[in-house]
Every structure is written in structure tokens, then in C-alpha cells.
Amino acid sequence: MTTIEKSYVPKSKIFGERPGYWPSKLTPGMITQTREVTAGEWSPDGKYLYYTVGYNARSDIYRLNLEDGSTIQVTGDVPATPLPMMGQMATSHDFSLSPDGSQIAFTSEKDGKIHLISSEGGVSKLLALGDPGQGSPIFSPDGSKVAFTYLSKDLFGIAVADAAGNQWPRLVSSPDFFSFAPRWFPDSKKLVYLEYDSHRTFFYENRLVMADLETGQTKILSEGLGKDLTFSYLPGNYAPSPDGKYLAYISEESGWANLYLLNVETGQSFPLVQEAAEHHNLHWSPDSTRIAYLKHQGTSVTVNITDLNGEHFALEEGNFVCSDQAWSPDGTKLSFTKQNSYTPPNIWLYDLTNRKATQLTKYNIGGLAQAGLVEAETIHWQGSDGLEIEGLLLKPEKVQPGKHPMLLYVHGGPMGQYNQRWDPHPQYWVSKGWVVVQPNFRGSTGYGRAFRKALFGTWGDMDMQDSMGGIDYANNLGLIDPSRVVAWGLSNGGYATMRLVTGWPERFKAGVALAGLSNLESMPDQTDRAAAYIIEELLGVRSENLETYRQRSGVNLAHQLKAPLLILEGDVDARVPKQQGEEMVAALQKAGKTDFERHVYEGEGHGWRKISSTLDYIERMEKFLTKWVLER
Question: Which fold has domain 373-630?
Fold first, then answer.
């Protein structure tokens, strides 16, 4: 095996003006210094906003004084990585403010359990007894209880703890089902949560269940449409109204994930907002007359408001991504996180009385304005069967036609999406003269149910062809040198990298696979149950479709590899265990291949959280690409 040493020095220094060699104003150090800011919750008096800031494998809760702009750090013990759920990452700031504003319930990274701390900071105390794996806490409206999600190897359930910490938490969901994301009804006696068959995937028979804590009885409020209804009830996609009359939720009956309203008393439901867009993250106004929700259309995500007659509007329109919106206690303002492809996330405040938005936090500003960042351009091309594919194109400000090396950056999931969210890594490579294309191949989120279902049975084939259409698009614009194209990606993107460079070896100069699966046949036995079921749904039962599993696995195509391959993994990755990298290395060695490198990061899971790991990753990737792409 040939190892690309970190001490490798480029052989040639005469190509400084060539794309790929350009000095970057965006340094790896600047990338690791950016903060992940997430808007959170208002204090009941409207004076404070609590939010999280993620940095270097940890996340801190802060309190912002909305009157004078001052901040205090409340705690530094919140997991920086959200819990994996159903093939995605469940978006949650993982803390809850008590109704009286005096306490915060949060998941401690130290022991994986729910703790309580004063909202002004101090020493925390354990709230929920039991095993680790506790997350997404939420106080009951009367402040007497805390509901949370409990995750173990074989149990994904909802538990409720006494807020005083005097009782052992009790499980309120059925152990026969996977359950997530509890939401309280205003009487503090009932909960609603997502439930699906633990022996299938969330594609089947997902439903919303109401649990009565006094009687112990459960009631199904709304059921999915079986296999036709994918991603119907993700966390944040349902919310009881403060007056208890309605349940707002998301359904894909129309083919799009749109906002519906259910009358709790009558059981009748009706669509509230219908359009060719996907809605999620529902939040009621304090007076139960309006709902703030996120509208996901194309590569943008905006905050929208609707009344109960379906009259709706967007706070702002544009090429950006908003998230984590929250109403002020008096219902006159909304806080939210806002970011775009060239601006890191910060918290904004929208005043509904004058229709103006104001930026509240200013993290990540220093140096970035002078770093030459570019805006991601939304592009479209046709797949091999005529299906329209959308993606993002990032290109240098000063183009040298036909000379730029290209990175095909494939997303994870596989049902994720690239949107206008901030990601410093493509920006870094563009600043050095690379062109980056980020394809949203069939199966990606944001384009309706039919587009997602187009991945069923075709994963590892048609999505690869969709992605390579992005290479053709950039080449037809005269931007790139088509002989210097690199496949790159994390998770499913890592799988795609190994699948692409082995399945279509003539099209790629190199590959960089991050936490990628290489063997679809062995992966279900190594990963968690949810991921194993996703693979089965996409490709069919393994024993009945073994040839397909094998044909679409990089390990079985290693003999076709012509491009050098860089494999990077974490040693505690539960989603894509490091055995997948080991199997790829064994296959390459058996095939007599030598131009590859594998590195395993100690203490890292599914992606890199530590600054040291990120710095090493960027440096290692740069030396690899310089040697095998730029100098060849």
C-alpha cells in the first residue's frame, strides 16, 4: 500500500498561477474557528433569548439580553453533534427552558443524560435517572415534567421524568415501535410523538400518537400513507396549538410535504397551505391564531407565517437558509437562524409590526468578508432518463476557461440535500481555483415525494449518473479541465465516491471518501438498525437481491480502479463503522492497487468534530490532490 505522507512537498513550484495552486485567503484555521450558531428559546418575560454555539466538539448555551445586547454563557456541556435519526440528523438544540424561565433541561455530553441548570448558569444536577442515550428534552407547559427521547441499541422511545428529579423516568411509548420527538398538549397530561414499526423503516406505517399520562392509553391521531408516504412526520413537523384545539402537522398526501391542520376533538383534518414546496418545523403563535413554519423550495429555506384560513406570507425571500424560528411571548416578533453559502449562521429578529429584520448576533464575521467567498449558483441539468436535476455550482471569481480542476461533492443521506447553507469547505477549494459542483440527485430532499421515490431500486446507479451530469454541465460551460475531476463526499457521499471511481474509472482523476460505506452486502450487519432498514428499502431484501448489492459496492469493483483514492474515517463511527474502510483496503490490495491512502481519526464518529481532525483532513486532502491531480 502506498501512503501519501503528510510531509509530502509538491515537486513543482512553477505553477503558482494555475487553478488549484492559488493561495487562499480562507485558511484552514479560519474554517475551524467558525461557530455553529442555533437560535433557541425566549424567556417568558421576553427579555432574553437562549441559544447554542457549537465549536470544537462541544456546544455551549448562551443567554442574550435583548435590551442591551450582552451575553452570558450558561453551560458548556451540550452535545455538539445531534442524535442520528432515520438516516438523517435530528435537528435539535437539545435543551428546553422551563415555563417560568428559571431552569434549563439539557442533555449532558458527560454522561448522555438529562440535567437541570439555572437559566443564569451555575452547577447542573442530574434530572433523569437511567441509562445514557437521553435527548431532546422538553418541559411540560406547567413545568412539572420533562419528556425526552431515549435511545439505545434496540429501543427508541419516549420517557417522562418528574421535573423535581424525585422519580425514575417512565416509558410512555410502546417498546414495539420506534418513537421520537415528544410534544406536549397544553394540559400537561398528554403527549404527541412520532411512531413507526421497529421492524420496518420509517417509510412504512409511520403515525402520530397521543399518549394520556393519567390513563396510560394511547390514540393514533394521524397515519401515514404506508410506503407511499416517506418522511411524513419528522421531528418539529407537528405541534399542538396552545389552546389545545388543533394539531398542526405535515402530510405528503398531495405529493409534497405540506402543512395540515387536525381538529383534536372531531378528528377531522384539512390542508392549510398547499404548494410545490416542503414545509417543516411548525411553531404556533402564543394566541393560537398563526403558525410559523419553514418553506423549503429548491435550495432555499425561508420562514413563513400562515393564519388558520391558509393566508400565508414569507418574512423574507432570497437565496438563504433559515431555521429554528421561535415566537416572542407577546407574538409580535420571531427569532430565527439565517445563513447562506458565503455567510455563516447568525441569529436574526423579525418585527411583525414594522416588517423589518435585525441581526442579533455577529459570530464568524472577522476575516471572512475579505476571504473572497463566492455565492453558490443554483443550476439544472437533465438526468440520463430526462429527469430534471438541480444542484449548486461554485466557481472562482476569476475564471480561466477550461483550466479549473473540479470537485464533484456528493451529499449524504442518501436523501439529504445541498442547499444555500454555509459550508466553508467548498469555499476553501474554490478560493484555490477549483470548481465545485454539488448535485441534488434523485432521492434528495426538497423536491417532493415522487422525486425521492425515484431512488428506490436505483440507488447506486441512477443517482450516480445524475451526479455525473453535473460534470458535463460544468464542462459544457467551458469552466473545467474534464481530465481533472475528483469525486468527494461524506457518508453516502463517501459511498458514492468509491462507487463512482470504481464504476466509471475513466471519468475521475481521484477520489476522497469520508466515512463511506464500501460493501452494501456487509453493511447491514455492521451498522445500526435504522440504517440497515434504509438500505433494505432502497435495494430490496438482501437475500433476494444479493447480486444488486454486490454490483453496486465499491469492494467488488476495486479491480477497475484507476484513480488514486483517499479514505478517511472515525474509529467510533456507529453509522458507517471503520470495517467498511478496512474491507475496501483489502479489496484494493487483492486487486494489486497501490495508489491509495487510509487514515482513521481517533475519537471521531460520523464526521469530524475536533479542530485537530479537521485541520489534518484539509491538509491531508490538499497534499493528496496536489500530488495526484494537479501535478499529473
Answer: Rossmann fold (3.40.50)
